[in-house]
Specification:
263 residues, five-stranded antiparallel sheet, single chain, alpha+beta
Length: 263
């Protein structure tokens, strides 16, 4: 998303704020992470709260990351194979991370998760086997800047889940959403596989109701049709296809107005 029109606008606007570049340089120098060179971040897990593996690529100086960790007495270090894994219990949730070569950083709640993440990042572990919904979503999306997918079948009832996520497992088998910029629009594409046709109808009604409320929330002097170029829901048995296209120019204009209010 950084190379999209919206991404470029946001980054340029952010960099104009006094002191921002100095803070980014400080993070790069002290933590070993160049936020302006991070290319992507992938996170995945079982659905359990605060339990996931994250893989960040780009902008990571492994030597500086290690130097910072060594300088902090609240960060412990151990080795998994030839990789150094740093762990800290400061704050509400424990965390562990490991810098790899070629600008990668693996993060997780503990060293065991990080170990699994290292294996995945190096192609030494078996990843997700795939899903028909995910393949359909990838066909609909052109170079998505953001994507989320969840296969809800087989999730253990014993894990600690957010109550909203728990509710989703009761009515859905799988869902996915992608966001990309295409032909002057920010395009959101979603696919939901519900557990039954009745559930899909209920979900469709909720989405349509939410969309109607969103349109009502816009100021009367703003032309909603100039901002939202397209909105559609197609339901086939228990599967829903949702598409929303929003004008990039309208989004940037809205961001400019919000920025002016904040000054």
């Amino acid at each position: 998303m950084r190379e999209s029109e919206i991404g470029i606008f946001v980054e340029e606007s952010y960099n104009k704020i006094p002191g921002v570049q100095e803070k980014l340089d400080w993070v790069k120098s002290n933590y070993g992470i160049d936020m302006q060179k991070v290319s992507n971040f992938t996170m995945f897990g079982s659905g359990e709260k605060h339990k996931a593996i994250g893989i960040m690529e780009g902008g990571v100086n492994s030597e500086n990351v290690a130097k910072f960790a060594d300088s902090q007495d609240f960060i412990s270090k151990n080795k998994i194979g030839k990789y150094e894994v740093f762990s800290l219990n400061k704050g509400r949730h424990p965390m562990a991370y490991a810098p790899l070569k070629k600008g990668k950083l693996i993060v997780g709640p503990d060293a065991n998760y990080v170990s699994d993440g290292i294996a995945l990042a190096r192609g030494k572990a078996e990843g997700y086997g795939g899903h028909s919904l995910l393949r359909k979503l990838l066909k609909k999306s052109l170079s998505p800047g953001f994507m989320v997918f969840a296969d809800l079948n087989g999730i253990s009832e014993d894990i600690d889940m957010d109550h909203r996520a728990k509710r989703m497992t009761e009515v859905m088998n799988a869902f996915g959403m992608s966001i990309n910029e295409h032909l002057g629009c920010l395009k959101l594409s979603g696919i939901i596989e519900a557990k039954s046709e009745k559930s899909s109808e209920q979900i469709e009604n909720m989405i349509r109701g939410g969309y109607a409320m969103m349109k009502m929330s816009f100021p009367k002097d703003q032309n909603i049709d100039s901002m939202i170029r397209d909105f559609s829901i197609q339901r086939n048995d228990s599967t829903l296809h949702i598409d929303l296209e929003i004008s990039v120019d309208a989004i940037i204009d809205r961001l400019k107005k919000e920025a002016e209010k904040a000054i």
